[in-house]
Design a protein that fits this description.
Four copies of one chain form a homotetramer. Chain A is built from three helices and six strands; from the N terminus they run αββαββββα. By secondary structure, the first copy, chain A, is of the alpha+beta class. Chains in contact: A-B, A-C, A-D, B-C, B-D, C-D.
Chain lengths: ~140, ~140, ~140, ~140
């Protein structure tokens, strides 16, 4: 699965096992990732989290399902100037059509950012979609 | 003011006039900005908004003040596959130490993303506060 | 449509006209709404925005559709100790299954809070749901 | 420390020990907390998290310091119609002027909501800073 922007930023992806809802991305800090203050640009950290959330959710998708980012909020806790960034992502909640994921980004033992996001899940097949929607309604109306 | 990551992603910055709290960034979609679904990666849109918010706030900073992103939430409203992205940013609230900014990203007339973020403003003062700022930097760089 | 919590907090709702995606809620500050610092509790402001977003989106729902809050982020810009709170809400984006809304809360001319949220839209009828999902897929895959 | 709005909503607060950065709030679901769909209103869940975050941060404040909510994002994962809500809050990051906290709200073993928020910390100092804090208060109370 080619990801041109991930290649441009330069991070590597280690997807969790099927169904795990987990994914880790890593990125070695290099000069092109810095902002005018000499610290890693928030866009590079965000890109790691966004891609990792999509990949983590992907481990839980059924045949034919796909997902898209709805929104992500990211907090920057510490400036990063060098080292290897590691973004650990986990599934917080998996509904039939909406999922919530969180990412913790760290350099060594120091957490430098945290993100919490929402993804939409699409299930292409009509008959399946209506069944899924039915299940969702039942769950919501409990 | 060199911004290596902005150059890597490829967006241009038009800062608002002094005190305006405004900034516009533009980015021409190109293949390296796409994700595996063939649409512009959220990280590229986020980078435009983050940089634009910092630049918009910068138009309101006094001599010696500087700012840093605390958190940003971005919503992706429409997938983008081509065209020129335009990110318009404005200051929502300017406190003495905290500012809130919002960005609207569009392609032509179609809005494709919206972001709302918080920035911290630091005002190093001659003696005492430069010491405080120093302590802050040490803590931040641990 | 009875809303016990809205009655407990005490805000009034003025829904926009059918299809407007707009709603305004108002709330007179009274002692029970204050936090330990003597300012209106964030939960009261959040409740106004959450209810107003749901009502604003409701003006755009088709027969049988209903909606639920997915997430909302609210920024507190100024403390409020007295006066009439007014929350103006508008639809930012209306997809077939996801909507984004924003609220501005003010007292007189002073903006005191701003919220940006995501809602999910559910369309009960199977055959309709699959048709809607199909339309969504086409739009997303453009 | 009187909290009229917390009393109105009806939740109880168990603050963590000094320095823990932790707090738990609990709330028994009752009819006045419901929204028109018959589930607990998001404003009640938000109020629990907002108060708990402030109280958790308070366990880390020095003499004379105080804090205020900057922004909070809350995700609603499951509808709640009855039972005892428990909101567990922890400090994610404590800077000198900014703190990040997260809350997990559950009913029994089921997580129903998650929040991630930013707080500002104010440290009035004898002369100069109390003047600054005074200016801040004046600005905030305009």
């Amino acid at each position: 699965m080619k990801n041109p922007f991930a290649e441009l930023v330069g991070f590597a992806l280690q997807m969790g096992r099927r169904g795990s809802g987990a994914c880790t991305t890593t990125l070695d800090v290099r000069p092109e990732l810095l902002n005018p203050n000499g610290v890693v640009h928030g866009g590079a950290l965000f890109a790691m989290a966004d891609t990792a959330m999509g990949a983590a959710l992907h481990t839980t998708l059924s045949q034919g399902e796909y997902c898209a980012t709805v929104e992500i909020k990211i907090h920057f806790l510490q400036p990063v100037t060098k080292g290897k960034l590691r973004c650990r992502t986990r599934l917080v909640h998996r509904g039939s059509r909406i999922a919530v994921l969180e990412s913790h980004i760290s350099v060594g033992r120091l957490q430098v950012a945290q993100a919490l996001g929402t993804f939409a899940i699409f299930a292409p097949r009509p008959q399946k979609t209506s069944a899924v929607a039915g299940a969702k309604r039942r769950r919501l109306s409990q």
